[in-house]
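Fold this sequence, please.
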Amino acid sequence: MVYLPDELHKDIKRLAVERETTMAALLREALEALRDEDMDDLAHAREFLSAYRPGSGKSLEQYHKERAAREKA
């Protein structure tokens, strides 16, 4: 069971009627989309972190120099 603020409940109920579906179906759809997006973000983060090697990054000074050069171009 999920408790929603009155205004959100009213809006979701209206949306469900307009889409000819149930509030539960809309909530499942929204939660699945949120889960899928977060799982993709986590997968990208894991991939990035697994490729990281200490000392392989740029110094802050080097980053600023490269950024300044890009901004001038």
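The two ends are 56 Å apart (CA to CA). The longest helix spans residues 23-51.
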